[in-house]
Write a structure and sequence with these properties.
- The complex is a heterodimer of chains A (495) and B (221).
- In chain A, the strands form four sheets. Chain A has a six-stranded mixed beta sheet, sandwiched between helices. A six-stranded mixed beta sheet of chain A has the order 16-17-18-13-19-20, with helices on both faces.
- In chain A, 34% of the residues lie in helices and 25% in strands.
- Chain A has helices at 41-48, 51-54, 76-79, 90-93, 99-109, 114-127, 143-155, 173-188, 200-203, 224-233, 293-300, 323-326, 346-357, 362-371, 387-399, 417-432, 444-450, 468-472, 475-480; strands at 2-10, 18-25, 30-35, 59-66, 69-70, 83-86, 161-165, 192-196, 209-214, 217-222, 253-264, 267-278, 282-286, 308-313, 316-317, 330-333, 405-409, 436-441, 453-458, 461-466.
- Chain A contains 19 helices and 20 strands.
- Chain A folds into two domains: 2-233, Rossmann fold (3-Layer(aba) Sandwich); 253-329 and 403-480, P-loop containing nucleotide triphosphate hydrolases (Rossmann fold, 3-Layer(aba) Sandwich), CATH 3.40.50.
- The longest helix of chain A is centred in the middle third of the chain and has 16 residues, at 173-188.
- With 221 residues, chain B is an all-alpha fold.
- Chain B folds into two domains: 1-97 and 191-221, no CATH class; 111-190, no CATH class.
- In chain B, α1 packs antiparallel against α4 (73-96).
- The radius of gyration of chain B is 22 Å and the shape is flat.
- The relative contact order of chain B is 0.14.
- Classes of the chains: A alpha/beta (495), B mainly alpha (221).
- At the A-B interface, α3, α4, α5, α6 and α12 of A face α6 and α7 of B.
């Protein structure tokens, strides 16, 4: 069906991204494409539906065909009903104001009649069980619902090949489980499925075949069982360091939250949350998407004011303080590093905070350059860095102010295995130096590797607080849905 | 309102705005204000409108104070009521017409699909850009950059504008990819919605036109 022979491709004014790729994809296969950030996974996907070369331009060498037709001779408008692409960013994929209109868009492009379009909308929404989403606008949907809507908008065109770019992205375990099931059903219905993904612990085991790309070349093309060894060897499945037992954890609380509640438009997002973080600890706040993690941590530095309750930092209630006044002592790094870059050089970007709060310490900056392996990046533009490097720079820019408490919101989001492993090593080093760290995440493997203590947040409430070992297998939490079944999502598990 | 043709909604909106602009007497503006306010519960928008007051009232208050300081109490009253009426008409219009409906209506009026698509997509992304601004402000405030609206913070706003611009460009690029991948450039596009005028459309248009003529006559008389 899809045949690539000695494919080399580069975008305009870049180096070669794909360097001699040979592969064929047959009808009905479920192909998992793995690789580090920048390995060429997405570019390979764009070649399948003709975005490469027709949309991006650039130089394409070698032969690429779909159903014996050369991709060069077919426009994207001709290929879109043969290879359906679901993009990584659902905000770009969902550009209509309701899901119903979203699904109709591609069908209208095909020139179908109104009656036929309405029939297909009904059919696809029944298949994916999204009938209740049809009238809603994309911004009101959860991450999992957005993915399903995006799949529906493409699947309704009935393409023989469905191509998904990082579909598991920021989904929590429950949403990921639902999506895995949906993808399996799509594949069983006879569609060829190509899933490009760097979170290999999710759906790898569902696929019939795995391709691993490394710097634009195929490193592995074969069954998923043999792929796992390569993924571990290449650190695409991260090998986290053993959790450091060092660090001067004390009984002195650095952060105390008492009976904190928060209402948004009458809806209680946080419900009487109380917790304590002691100096030197690494604590993970664990919860599914929408459980209130980000809302909670925004209260710690004053980005949000509690409707009820209080936050005490270093013995002083933070009420009335602006976040910018808290920055010197409490560093908060959010999920998307691109939200903070505005300087031309990495070095200037990192120095912004220390200059503002008046904590420019040369010796400490030297330590940061070395500890975060930043020397080679200092003169580069932050926008030209890989996702892993961006995350490192973002955290370094916070640490440059030497905060007493570091808070990270979903630090592994968008990171490949190597970057997650590097991040874990960095945080271990910081822990050994006595830094108190709070991590809000639904990445349980990372949280297990990093945190001394887990605080489980579920539907806006703290439902448990304890060591990861004790909580991981807590049946009550699993039944509640606050934690997944321990085997869920692990390679080899066919759930 | 849901079964009205979008062209009718557009015409009603334009006539309402026209009526607000021709009125210069506080009495006329007050009558218009009462009519518009009566429409809110009839259209089921009362609660949402009450919610919107927290944004509207400070704006109206500011206009009233500036009008009072610059002119006199009557002028400031006229300016404030006119602003309230305009905001309320826009509120009703944008809550009753989805971007796709507006695009469909404009297409039917002969405006090319490419142009109406840009318009409707821009409307769809306004809340998303608002959310992005919120995220950027949170990220920058958390590392000490004060982005509160104060004169001394003016130079700090580069920290908001640069990431916003870059992310908007990235989003527009991805959007173009998504559109291409769903056949935007394909010829022979159809539309599942067929807009036709019905009795309600004609009735409401006549009623609105009558009201507009009445207000013009009242103002001139």
């Amino acid at each position: 069906m899809i045949l690539l022979r000695d494919i080399r491709y580069r975008y305009p004014r870049t180096n070669w991204i794909l360097k001699g790729v040979d592969l064929s994809v047959d009808d009905g296969e479920y192909v998992f494409v793995a690789g580090a950030n920048g390995s060429g996974k997405s570019t390979l996907g764009y070649l399948f539906n003709g975005l490469v070369p027709h949309f991006f331009g650039g130089t394409l060498e070698g032969s690429a065909s779909i159903n014996h037709a050369d991709i060069r001779d077919k426009s994207v408008a001709e290929l879109f009903s043969h290879v359906g692409l679901v993009l990584q960013n659902p905000d770009a994929q969902l550009f209509n104001s309701t899901i119903e209109d979203e699904i109709a868009f591609g069908l209208e492009s095909l020139g179908l009649s109104g009656g036929e379009i309405n029939n297909r909308i009904r059919e696809i929404s029944r298949t994916l069980n999204i009938e209740d989403l049809l009238g809603r606008s994309p911004e009101t949907l959860s991450g999992g619902e957005k993915r399903l809507a995006a799949i529906a908008s493409v699947l309704c065109l009935d393409p023989p090949v469905l191509l998904m770019d990082e579909p598991f992205g920021d989904l929590d375990w429950q949403a990921a489980k639902g999506l895995r099931q949906t993808l399996l059903e799509i594949n069983r219905s006879g569609k060829t499925l190509v899933v490009i993904e760097q979170r290999v612990d999710r759906s790898l085991q569902d696929a019939t075949r795995c391709l691993i790309l490394d710097a634009g070349s195929l490193l592995h093309d074969g069954p998923t069982e043999t792929a796992k060894e390569v993924l571990i060897k290449e650190h695409l499945i991260p090998n986290y360091p053993n959790r450091s037992q060092n660090g001067p954890a004390t009984t002195d609380p650095i952060l105390t939250v008492k009976d904190l509640s928060h209402l948004i438009q009458g809806k209680e997002i946080l419900k009487s949350v109380s917790l304590e973080v002691r100096a030197g600890e690494t604590v993970a706040i664990i919860g599914r998407n929408g459980s209130g993690k980000t809302t909670l941590i925004k209260h710690f530095n004053g980005l949000l004011r509690p409707t009820e309750g209080k936050v005490v930092f270093q013995g002083e209630e933070i009420r009335g303080k602006a976040p910018s006044e808290m920055a010197a002592d409490m560093g908060l790094s959010f999920q998307n590093p691109n939200n903070q870059f505005f300087k031309y050089r990495v070095k200037d970007e990192i120095l912004v905070g220390p200059k503002i709060v008046g904590k420019l310490q040369e010796a400490w900056l030297e330590e940061l350059w070395n500890g975060f392996n930043l020397r080679g990046l200092l003169e580069k533009s932050p926008y030209r860095l890989s996702e892993g490097e961006k995350r490192r720079v973002a955290i370094a820019s916070i640490l440059a102010m030497r905060p007493k408490l570091l808070i990270l919101d979903e630090p592994t989001s968008g990171q490949d295995g190597r970057s997650r492993e590097a991040l874990a090593l960095l945080l271990s080093t910081l822990k050994d130096r006595g830094l108190t760290t709070l991590i809000a995440t639904h990445d349980l493997n990372f949280a297990r590797a990093m945190a001394d203590r887990w605080i489980i947040l579920h539907e806006g409430r703290v439902v448990q607080d304890g060591s990861p070992q004790d909580l991981c297998n807590d049946e009550q939490l699993i039944r509640l849905g606050a934690l997944p079944d321990p085997d869920l999502g692990q390679p080899g598990n066919k759930n | 309102m849901s079964h009205l043709d979008p062209r009718t909604k557009l015409a009603l909106g334009l006539m309402a705005i026209g009526a607000v602009f021709v009125a210069e007497e506080p009495g006329t503006l007050l009558v218009e204000c009462i009519i518009i306010l009566l429409c809110l519960p009839l259209l089921g928008m009362w609660r949402a409108w009450l919610h919107s007051l927290r944004f509207v009232l400070p704006m109206v208050g500011l206009v009233f104070v500036i009008g009072f300081l610059s002119f006199d109490i009557w002028t400031s009253l006229v300016l404030s009521i006119r602003l309230i009426n305009l905001l309320n008409v826009c509120f009703i219009f944008f809550r009753s017409v989805s971007p796709e409906e507006m695009g469909g209506g404009l297409n039917k009026m002969g405006i090319p699909y490419g142009f109406t698509f840009i318009l409707t997509t821009a409307m769809r992304y306004v809340p998303l850009i608002g959310l992005k601004i919120r995220h950027i402000v949170d990220a920058q405030s958390s590392r000490g950059i004060d982005l509160r609206f104060k004169l001394r913070n003016v130079t700090n706003f580069m920290a908001l504008l640069m990431p916003l611009l870059v992310q908007s460009f990235v989003l527009s690029d991805e959007l173009a990819m998504a559109m291409e991948s769903r056949g935007f450039a394909r010829k022979g596009r159809s539309s599942r919605k067929h807009y036709r005028f019905n009795l309600w459309d004609y009735g409401l248009m006549i009623l609105s036109l009558t009201l507009l003529v009445f207000f013009i006559w009242w103002e001139r008389g």
